[in-house]
Amino acid sequence: MSDTTLQHSRSAATPCDPASGTAPAVRRVKSQDLFQQMREVEIDHEGRIYRLRLTQLNKLILTA
Question: Which of 36, 47, 50, 58 has CB atoms 3.0–4.6 Å from 43's, for a disulfide?
Fold first, then answer.
């Protein structure tokens, strides 16, 4: 995927501020702050529980 295509797909998925025509900033969270010494966290999304886990290779896995 080219940089132009990637930028276009991002802007198409993110609502723009009609006044400025720019996309709002994306919130960034450090994984250390999210996990706080744990290897797994549960995320409640509209009543459904998802699990975000750290693997032994320090990768992230999200499961429903």
Answer: 50
